[in-house]
Specification:
Blueprint: H1 17-29, H2 36-47, H3 52-62, H4 66-75, E1 87-92, H5 95-99, H6 102-113, E2 126-131, E3 143-145, E4 148-150, H7 158-165
Bound molecules: FE2/S2 (inorganic) cluster (FES).
Length: 168
């Protein structure tokens, strides 16, 4: 154990409101079995992703090796180690969408927000994630933005759809 307080030198730069909330979470889970995943989930809810210094703080707080925290955070796809956009665009590249022009939809989105697949815009408005079938094949080609499904798309429809989410 590295002391009762979880704020060692490794996380000295993150003493902000979010960190204070996270300290409370760490306090609740400290010493409990299976604490790491729920703590990582709650940390990600707070920060939007898992910054390195936050993972170091979690390792300190739960008295775990940083390699274990990092290993779990990189193993599960639910965890993100880079900042993500406020709006997550999931472009379906499954078979039904593929045959109905998903590539053109993706191209249109990339042209509009100027990011690579898996990337996030500099203003953190959008993250672009290609995905396999999202279960709405009847509406192909389909994208999801956050929890909204947009189907039977054409590349021309993309700018107007994205506009609705900008500065939301
Ligand atoms: S293939 Fe795109 S929703 Fe099923």
């Amino acid at each position: 154990m590295q002391g009762n307080s979880c704020c060692g030198a490794s996380n000295s730069k993150i003493k902000d409101e979010k960190w204070v909330s996270l300290e409370g979470i760490l306090e609740k889970f400290r010493g409990k079995k299976g604490a790491l995943i729920p703590v990582l989930q709650q940390a990600q809810d707070l920060y939007g992703y898992l910054p390195e210094n936050v993972m170091a703080g979690i390792a300190d707080g739960l008295d775990l090796p940083l390699s274990q925290v990092y290993g779990v955070a990189t193993f599960y796809s639910q965890f993100h180690l880079k900042p993500r956009g406020k709006n997550i665009i999931r472009v379906c590249l499954g078979t039904a969408c593929h045959v109905r022009g998903a590539a053109k939809i993706l191209e249109s989105i990339q042209k509009e927000i100027n990011v690579e697949k898996g990337g996030t815009t500099e203003d953190l408005q959008f993250t672009l994630e290609p995905v396999a079938c999202i279960g709405a094949c009847g509406l192909a080609p389909v994208i999801m933005i956050n929890d909204d499904t947009h189907g039977r798309l054409t590349p021309e429809a993309i700018p107007q759809i994205l506009e609705q989410y900008k500065n939301n």
